[in-house]
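Colleagues,

For the teaching module next term, I've prepared a clean inverse folding example: a structure given as tokens, and then the sequence designed for it. I'd like students to try predicting residues themselves before seeing the answer, so please don't circulate the second half yet.
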């Protein structure tokens, strides 16, 4: 690789969920796409904590003895690197950093992007105006642009979706095989229902954000509607975090989806506390994704071409096909649209 070129480096790596974390990568990728820059990537950029990490446990012990709140880990570890072949489509950051130290490349610091949450009304030309100006003024090759830390990520993927899809689906294990079959050999309609519970439940770290949880009744109405409208067998996977491997309602009480949907023509699998990678692949490659107010739902929906029945949240699904955004209060007209989408699939 020649040292002459125009590159971008980003060191921001919040120890957060996949939606939050990929928002920062998206910020960098969109700038690269806007200005034909080469992204300088290192695996540690998206490496996260997990509960078995000695470093993480020591950090939380120190928080405990200093009377600070102990944090919960998302237990992602190196899963994002396993899911996305970022290195295949980026430059090696260590090489670029070495060229900087040797003085063969020039560093230019970028300003923060003008991104606000909620981002539903985001206009990229406005959000990136100051960044665009600095890059256009820095003429010639041999330049490395560096994004500032402590900034807001970009959660709007209309212009970068295909880049992320290429990085995701170039990992062979991410490609769908649609191996779930219905009785008699006809293929089932595979539905993944991502129900956000986990750290929002009573007594958990982010219980103050419990309003982001939609009630079980919301999902049940949609599932009944989908099952009634589907032309054949239906396979439902309830993807969620629970307590000791058991699903919990929004009140933190044990709840059986198999019992709740016993009168509906579907087979229910409660996919509770499963490995993150398995859950995410299920959500991306299902036929119908019923989602939560969650970055994990948002990202899985952005990557996949499946039908998405999702709640309106603080980021839009611009650039993503087959999306029906629904309100917290389901109206008959909403359910009629759900039926029309399923019958037309």
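(Answer key — instructors only)
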């Amino acid at each position: 690789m020649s040292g002459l070129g125009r590159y971008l480096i980003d060191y921001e790596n919040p120890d957060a969920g996949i939606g939050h974390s990929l928002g920062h990568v998206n910020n960098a990728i969109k700038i690269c796409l806007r200005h034909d820059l080469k992204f300088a990537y290192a695996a540690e950029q998206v490496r996260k904590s997990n509960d078995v990490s000695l470093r993480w446990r020591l950090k939380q012990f120190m928080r405990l003895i200093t009377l600070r709140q102990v944090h919960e880990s998302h237990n992602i570890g190196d899963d994002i690197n396993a899911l996305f072949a970022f290195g295949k489509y980026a430059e090696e950051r260590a090489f670029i950093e070495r060229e900087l130290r040797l003085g063969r490349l020039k560093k230019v610091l970028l300003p923060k992007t003008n991104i606000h949450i909620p981002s539903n009304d985001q206009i990229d030309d406005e959000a990136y105006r100051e960044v665009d100006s600095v890059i256009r003024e820095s003429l010639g090759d041999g330049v490395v642009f560096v994004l500032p830390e402590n900034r807001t990520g970009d959660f709007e993927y209309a212009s970068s979706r295909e880049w992320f899809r290429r990085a995701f689906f170039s990992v062979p294990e991410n490609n769908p095989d649609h191996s779930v079959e219905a009785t008699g050999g006809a293929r089932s309609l595979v539905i993944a229902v991502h129900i956000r519970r986990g750290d929002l439940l009573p007594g958990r770290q982010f219980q103050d954000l419990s309003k982001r949880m939609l009630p079980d009744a919301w999902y049940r109405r949609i599932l009944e509607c989908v099952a009634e409208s589907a032309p054949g067998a239906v396979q439902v996977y309830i993807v969620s975090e629970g307590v000791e491997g058991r699903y919990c309602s929004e009140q933190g009480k044990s709840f059986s989806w198999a019992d709740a949907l016993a009168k509906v023509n579907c087979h229910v699998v409660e996919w509770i506390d499963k490995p993150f990678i398995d859950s995410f692949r299920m959500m991306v490659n299902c036929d119908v994704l019923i989602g939560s107010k969650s970055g994990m739902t948002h990202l899985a929906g952005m990557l996949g071409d499946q039908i998405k029945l999702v709640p309106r949240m603080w980021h839009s699904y611009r650039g993503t096909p087959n999306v029906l955004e629904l309100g917290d209060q389901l109206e008959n007209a909403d359910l009629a649209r759900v039926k029309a989408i399923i019958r037309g699939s």
